[in-house]
Amino acid sequence: MKIGKVPENILKRSILKQIHTKREEVLLGANVGEDCAAVKLAEDEIFVISTDPITGTATDIGNLAIHITMNDLASSGAEPIGVMLTILLPVETKETDLKKIMEQMETACAQVKVQIMGGHTEVTRAVNQPLINVCGVGKVKRGKLISTAGAQPKDDILVSKWIGLEGTSIIAKEKEQELLLRYPSELIKEAQKFDRYLSVLPEAAIAVKSGVSAMHDVTEGGIFGALWELAESSGVGLEIDLKKIPVKQETIEICEYFNINPYELISSGCMLMASSDGNLLVRELEKVGIHAVVIGKALKGKDRILLNEEEKRFLEPPKTDELYQVL
């Protein structure tokens, strides 16, 4: 496609025609010439807005772009309503590529009942692979807003599902041929399908009903980065049992092959939570088939301790995500 704003005929054919999911709260949505979206809220509701780019991979980028931003909204206790998109495409992009990205995003939006409300699409020499930034809009009742800063001393610290899901899925797709030289195809195919776990909306909804103190979706920097951010934001210390942090065998194998740390690998699909009764929350999540486990406690003070049997060390501030060492 030519450099510049995507032409109107392509906008209509490959973008607007792919948008089917609608929300009654959206008064003004995506259309030719529309620069804004409009959303109505009830008097007792609060706007919640989040934005996230996808830069680490171009594989399955539409699906990732939607789920990552929806997870941010869910971690605040909000119900997602819609998204505004900025899509920047390299010059060699074909219209079929753009249409595929839009189909991925609409499929993800339909899964979580979110409307694509508008945005901007452009072909530019400034990028060498598709770049998508998603601004998500959600709503939450007054008094129900959850933050990363809500953890209290003595709270249980728990996680849902497993760490490393997103990073494992991306690496298994991007490095499939190399990995197949060492591992059976069944292991690689299963790892590639970890993206089916990306959404944390179900566990967030249950956690809000169960009175969770704080939530933080585990993204760049992995579980170590998320633990540091939750502790720093809440002003608490931590004592975490490393062996209790759940990780899939496929993640372990792929991380060992590339000599990277699974605890510092991007982990969308895993929700970090603080609760006064973590075991109760675990049981509520398990009732609907969501694996969860208590991995430690919040403490008074600033010490962030990692225990590995007899070994004791301190958590460090977030580092560059391990995904970038592989890709």
Shape: globular
The oligomeric state of the chains shown is: single chain
Largest sheet geometry: 7 strands, mixed
Mean pLDDT: 93
Topology pattern, helix = H, strand = E: EHEEEHEHEEEHHHHEHEHEHEEEH
Count helical runs: 11
Task: Trace the largest sheet across and list its strands.
Answer: 9-11-8-12-10-13-14
Compute the CA-based radius of gyration.
20 Å
**Uncertain spans, ≥5 residues at pLDDT below 50?**
none
Question: Total number of β-strand segments?
Answer: 14
Roughly how much helix do the residues carry, as a percent range?
A: 25-40%
Distance between the termini: 26 Å
Strand percentage lies at 25-35%
Structural class: alpha+beta
Characterize the structure shown:
It is a single chain. With 327 residues, the protein is an alpha+beta fold. Strand 13 (304-308) and strand 14 form a beta hairpin. The strands form three sheets. Strands 9-11-8-12-10-13-14 form a seven-stranded mixed sheet, sandwiched between helices. Strands 1-6-5-7-4 form a five-stranded mixed sheet, covered by helices on one side. The chain has a two-stranded antiparallel sheet with strand order 2-3. The radius of gyration is 20 Å and the shape is globular. Helix 4 packs across helix 6 (185-192). The two termini are 26 Å apart. 34% of the residues lie in helices and 26% in strands.
Describe the protein's topology.
Elements: E1 4-5, H1 8-15, E2 26-28, E3 38-39, E4 45-54, H2 61-75, E5 79-89, H3 95-112, E6 115-123, E7 131-141, E8 156-160, H4 165-174, H5 176-180, H6 185-192, H7 201-209, E9 214-217, H8 222-234, E10 237-241, H9 249-258, E11 271-275, H10 278-287, E12 292-299, E13 304-308, E14 311-314, H11 323-326
Parallel strand pairs: 5-6, 10-13
Antiparallel strand pairs: 1-6, 2-3, 4-7, 5-7, 8-11, 8-12, 9-11, 10-12, 13-14
Helix pairs in contact: 1-3, 2-3, 4-6, 4-9
